[in-house]
Amino acid sequence: MKYRSCIKRMRYKKEPLIKNILLNIRRFYYIIFRRRYVERSVENRKGNCGCHGCCRTRIYSCKWMEYKTNKCTLWKGLGYDGLPTLCKILPFDEKDKTEFNKNHCNFYWN
Q: What are the residues whose beta carbons fall under 8 Å from the beta carbon of 42, sequence distance 6 or more?
């Protein structure tokens, strides 16, 4: 009985990791090979950055994120114009929003 519950918990933890790996592959593919699509999508994006970490994934950790409050500390200090380029372009479309920040992200597209 204990063994089965451990297996269920392991599956639950692996699934978001696999989704995040696929999200990163998609992000890098679009940024490298479909740059015009990303540029047009960022131009058509509406809303403001709410510092909820939509630009990050669980694969790598951002040194400017406060994970307890899920807020970006770099944004507070520099504002949107001072952010690194990758932070500015992510998320570049609705599919690019991460699974755990979909409901919190302030960006939207028509």
A: 88, 89, 92
Is-contact 41 109, C-beta < 8 A? yes
Neighbour tally for 73: CB within 10 Å: 14
Q: Mean pLDDT of all residues in the chain?
A: 76
Residue 52 located in a structural domain: yes
DSSP 14-45: HHHHHHHHHHHHHHHHHHHH-HHHHHHHHHH-
Question: Which tokens belong to 39?
Answer: 């540029």
**Per-residue pLDDT at 34 exceeds 80:** yes
Residue 104, in any domain of the structure = no
Dist CA 38 CA 35 (whole Å): 5
> Would residue 109 count as lying in a domain?
no
